[in-house]
Amino acid sequence: MKMKWAFLFVIFTISTVLTGCGNSLMVLDPKGPSAKTLSDTIILSIIVMAGILLVVYVLYVYVLTKYRASKQDKDYEPPYEEGNHWLEIIWTLIPILIVTFLSVVTVKTTYEVETTPKGYAEEKPLVIYASSSNWKWHFSYPEEGIETVNYVNIPTDRPVEFRLYSFGPITSFWIPQLAGQKYAMSDMVTKINLVADTPGSYVGRNSNFNGKGFAHMEFETQAMTPADYDEWVTDVKDTASDLTEKEFDKLLKAEFVGRETYSSTHLEFRPAPEGEHGGHNHGNSDEENKTSPSSEEHHEHTQHHGE
What we know:
Blueprint: H1 2-20, H2 33-66, H3 85-114, E1 126-133, E2 136-141, E3 146-149, E4 151-155, E5 160-166, E6 171-174, E7 182-184, E8 190-194, E9 200-206, E10 218-224, H4 226-239, H5 245-253, E11 260-262, H6 286-291, H7 295-306
Parallel strand pairs: 1-5, 4-10
Antiparallel strand pairs: 1-2, 2-3, 3-11, 5-8, 6-7, 6-9, 9-10
C-alpha cells in the first residue's frame, strides 16, 4: 500500500513540474546563434552533472554490495586497511577539474553572447530601444522613426541590438528562444545583441518580479523576412499616428494596455539615459528638478541641523 502511494506521489510531482516548467524549456529550442550558444552550454552542464551522478550512484551500489553486513562471529575483527594516497589525490582533483572546466565554458559563453554573433560582425545592427513602464514594454526604432508597445518586429538574418532601460522598477528583458536575459534600469542603458535566423513568433517577457502585473508583462517578438519587415515599416509610417508627449505620459501612467503602434518615437522628447542624458533622475520633469534640493543644499542643511 505504501509503495502505491509513493508511486502516485512521484507521478503527481513529475506532472506538476513539467506543467509549470513547459515554457522554460523554450531555452532548449533556440532560433538564433546567441540562444544556440546558451542552449549548448546548458545541455553540456546537464551532461556533466548527469555523469557525476552516474559515477556516484555506481560507487554507492558497489560500496553497499562489497561492504554490506555479513554473518560473522561476534569476536570477528575486520582487517585494518591503510589509506591510499593516490586515491585521495584523485578524488580531490576530479571536483577541481570539473569546476575549472565548467568555469572556462561559462566565461567563454558569456563573452560570445555579449558580442555580435559570429558571421554578423561586419553588418550594421538594427538598434531598438526597449523600455519598460509599469507592466508594459515600449520599443523605439530610431532608424525607422516608429514605436510599438507590447510587441516588437525584427528582420531575420540581421544583427539586432536592444538597448534596455526602465521608467520605473528594475525589470529583466528576456526572449528565451533568441537570447539570454538582461536587466533594464532607470539610470543607465544595457544592451543585448541577437540574431533571429528563423522566421516566427517568439515569446518575450520580464523575468524579474516587479509587482502585481508581473505575470502580464509579456510581449510578442515577430521575426520576419527582410522584405516583410520593410513592408511592415512602410505600412506603419503610412497609417499610424504620431506619438506625442501627452500621449506618451498617458502610456506611462497606465498599468495595462494592449498593442499600440506609432509613426514617431518618444526618444525625441524623452531620450534614453545614455550619454549626456545618463545618470540619476531620469524621467523627471524640469519642475521636479527645480523643486528638489540639490545634493550640495541637502548636505549643507544636514550639517546645519547637526550643529
